[in-house]
Amino acid sequence: QGGNTAHGVASIFADSGDEALYIGVKDAAYPNRGYGFKVTTSGVNSDFTIYEKGLNGDRLTIKTGGNVGIGTTSPSYKLDLQDTSATYVARFRGSNSTYVQSGESTLSGETGFLAKNSTGALYLGVTGGVAYFTGTSGANTMKFGVGGAEKMRITSDGNVLIGTTTDDGYKLDVNGTQRVQDVLELDDVLTLNAISTPDDPTDGKSSIYMDSATGDIKVKINVGGEVVTRTLASYDG
Q1: Is residue 71 within 8 Å of 83, Cβ to Cβ?
Q2: What percentage of the chain reaches a pLDDT higher than 90?
Q3: What is the DSSP-derived secondary structure letter of residue 14?
């Protein structure tokens, strides 16, 4: 007690599992308010534990080998946090209301991870065998990229844009060449934009297009390197 200061090296020994050092608050009403330190034999080495005296609970354990456990006395990883009674287990927070936390369960009931800043949040979780990767109302667009560049985005209306960032209202808008290697089934109208005569298709392929000069719907067919053009429908306007 008091403000005594000591210098030098102190060695404290106790039996395995016994309290070797206790640091508490001087309070007659709560004489056990504080934390104890104990060392427990583990093979030829030992484990270190900090425990809360008043509630008689282990709070932090360092296992021989370096694994650190919070909420567990048997950590399996370098940092192992456990709390089966809590929704949120860990939070890593920065500036501007930015943080990542585990145990989020406010979106459709799933439990997982939340990444949030001042403009919105992103949830990653699983519930009922279904995986969720979802943005909140504040996150109006979800972008996907590789190599430091955006490649695809999903808008707040559910429109998927690939190769473009301009939303023209289509559920799927692809800017670039597409390929379907099996049957393409359409349950609605297929719209062809008028273009000038396209390049010839490669051998074994065909191209359907609307001729901008005539308005006709035409097909180019390449068989054995020979390309023929046929008119499927003529514009008589």
Answers
A1: yes
A2: 37
A3: -
